[in-house]
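Record type: monomer structure entry
Structure origin: computed from sequence
Chain ID: A
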Amino acid sequence: MQKWIQRLANLSAIGMFLILAMGALVTKADAGRGCGDEWPLCHGKFIPAHTISSFIEYSHRLVVGIVTMILVATFYLVFRYVKRKDAKFFITATVVMTLIQAAMGALAVVWPQSSLVLALHFGLSLLAFAFSLLLALVFTSWGQFVRTTQIHTSFKVIVWFTAIYSYIVVYLGAFVRHTVSSGGCSGWPLCNGEFIPELSGATGIVFTHRIAALLLFVCILFLYLQARRHYQPTDKLWFGSKWALITVSLQVISGAVVTWSLGNEVAYLFTGMIHAIIVACMFGFLCYLCVLTLYDRKA
């Protein structure tokens, strides 16, 4: 039974990853209204006409439905056969976040919502993915969170501050997409050929996100340097910090590529999805570090 639970947990994490990536594609392709203002039907049909926007939106809905059923099965088996309390918490949080973001997605179709609310939709999907990833890790060697060495209090503060701040930066990125502000800054690293452009409209939104992303890179770099200073290369804290730094570096690069791809619709969609995927990986590593700090050995 443990093998079946592990397989379902892995499928749940993969499914949440697909939902997040496909959600980013829906936004980038402006396909959120691809099925009109109907839910769960699409233009009055279970299988809609094969227009690009309806195909993208309906595929996203279909994947959400399949993953939700996998989550329900995983939820039942975890509560019945798994004794670890953290596993039960992770699957519960995954299901709750998935249901909330699915409900928000349905409401956004029926009743158009503001960009502020729509950006939160991506943030909830990100949390759902992070919890599903942590659940999948429970059944691996990386999921043995109990430590034999103590974690410095200052390091715990840095980890949690960085994770929370990263969520804010991700929300700003989602807000950029939902306000269709990506073109506010042409060029990278300069914005419209200036170090500090006029901070109004789309330009102000994009430039704020760029500064926030730069500060996030600095935070994670500092986090990695502290992990390298205080912990061994075999320590999970060192491992998680290293990969958080790698992914945030890739995030910065992919963000630049997204900007350079403006004007090429196919390249823009592809690079936008890659950017969202990298963001999800980075946030997953930061959440993993947060969980490790909760299992600190008491002095």
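Annotation 1: Helices lie at 2-28, 52-81, 85-110, 115-138, 153-178, 201-230, 236-260, 265-294.
Annotation 2: The chain has a mean pLDDT of 84.
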